[in-house]
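Honest question from a wet-lab person: if I give you the sequences of every part of a complex, can you actually get the arrangement of the whole thing, not just the pieces? Trying it with mine:
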Amino acid sequence: MARRILSLLKKDLLLEFRQQHSFYGILLYIASTIFVLYLSIDKPDGAIWNGLFWVIQLFICVNAVAKSFLQESRGRMLYFYSVVSPVEFIIAKIVYNVILMIGMSLMSLLLFLIFLDNPVDNSLVFVGIVILGGASISIVFTLMSAIAAKAQQNAALVAILGFPVILPQLLLLMRLSKTAFAEVFREGAVIRLVGEIAGLDVLVIVLGIILFPYLWKD
Amino acid sequence: MKKNWWKILSLLLLVYTVVGGLLMDVPRLFILNESIRNLYFHVCMWFGMMILFIVSFVYSIKYLSGFNLRNDIYAHNFAAVGTFFGILGYSTGAIWANYTWITDQSQSLGSVLKEPKLIGAAIALLIYGAYFVLRGSFTDIDKRARISAVYNIFAFAMLFPSIWIIPRLVGSLHPGAPGSESGNPALNFKDIDSRLRMVFYPAVIGWTLLGAWIATLKIRLQLIKDKTLINE
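Yes, you can. This is the full assembly:
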């Protein structure tokens, strides 16, 4: 099982390296969005910076992760259907998207720091939060993309389905990232918030593993 | 007639709720005053919504275990009525907040409504809104039933963090926030006056039965429309 997940993962990564246009497409998307922000506002204060950052993460994720199921052609899906189980397939997709999204999040953090100043007090903590946040957002959107891929107007549907579902996580993440902006939390509150976000992630992954077999057969 | 007892019960309970709820004695607390009577309407809507969503969730699971289209129709209509109750709950809550939460005239309703509890409720309604959009985007009936059942289960699971967990963690004017020490509002016996309970519990049952009644009517209509599709 682990071997097959690994080879699926390797296939996705290889595809990403071979078809570099989509990868650079997302990078360009990140760079140009942040550049637009840089042109429209200079030196936003912490709260606005934080809000903008997470909203941009959301849009990056819609663009980066949404294609994960849409790019698989019908014939290729049929091939996967015959060689791997749905559970292996969804785990491989989730892992791949988490890796991709964490990379994109860190990239956009770097660009944010370059273009939009650095209001973050505790940078190391914020990098950790960004990794956690990137992972949580991408897990949810992997599932939403799997659902939307089954419908016709799928690209728009990812956003429609995903935005309400991601809101609880996003609210928790925005709250959590205030620790990096030197807001003092009650003792243990930070750990509890991290626990809740991680718990939600686990819930979403478990649901994905249970429900994906029903999505997958046509 | 035998099967209809619960509809009559619902009607009687609702008549009692409206008459008793508006005329019987209630405790008059500071600020809340007589507006506490909204408890019989506002809170009951959320109870009704939650119960209808649970029923819808169960039918979605049943659909996935047997692929009987009948269960999909049940799940869809219970979710639809549940969402309708949710919208009513939100608007009764907004009216209530308009009279109790606004402390000075310069405060707008919009700023008051930016409450964790209300945001959570709005998220829940948006998630179910997405469920109906998803249903609308399919032309194949079996595919629609299967995919939307999957999303319905997912939506139900996300309901818990958004309306039960997150509002409990952050301070809020709404009962049930950490500061108020009241745990679950309305369910806590110490919280709610016995005079209110006299009407409140019958009201919950009455409104929920009414919701189930509306849902069954919609389901029967849909079953007749799709008569040719459902093979028993």
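Two things worth pointing out. Residues 18 and 75 of chain A are 20 Å apart (CA to CA). Chain A has a mean pLDDT of 86.
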